[in-house]
Request: fold
Amino acid sequence: FLFSNAALAVPPANDNCTGAILVTTSVYSDLGVVYTSGNTTTATRSIPNPGCVGGANDNNDDIWYKFVAQTQTELLRVQSVVAGSNYVTLGYALYDGCGGTEITCNNGMATFYGNEMLGGLTPGNTYYIRFWAQGPFTSMTFSFAIMDITPQVPANDAASATFLNINAPGQHCITPQFYTTASATRSANNPTCNTDNDDDVWFQFICPSNAVNIYP
Reply:
């Protein structure tokens, strides 16, 4: 009886990269985002394993999507990660093709909600993204969006630091600015907490009170 039940479990159409579902990217927006729904129930493990998984069965329920990059950087936003009444963590990996090179991998991106930048992409190229519920004997439902980002290049030194506007007290940050450290160089002296600042960038702001919150 148990064997019969297992035989009736049909994997989803996007169980492997050859069946990856094409999703359309959208211009970045915090409001009115169009999400794609995903469900890893009955999905099976694809080979080879992603480079970041901790155990052989972490990705035992991975499913696949693909998208055409519109910008060099895309924002991956995941929300509504649900597994019945239990918490589950979503993992993902990005590839430059079906059976291609793994670009990035995160086995613990989100429990309920998460954002990650997918950088260094070539506009017009197709990329494959693989999702799974972390750990064996787990599955999840979730939704995600891939949004086009064009990061600004901020100042490379303190003398020309990029000016930032500060939100009014209590105002939510719904229109964030996106920046990149690409091509930036190291400024002297090193910060006291880090000597790896070979790509530091600079900002300045006028403080409206005795404290501000910074949300990177």
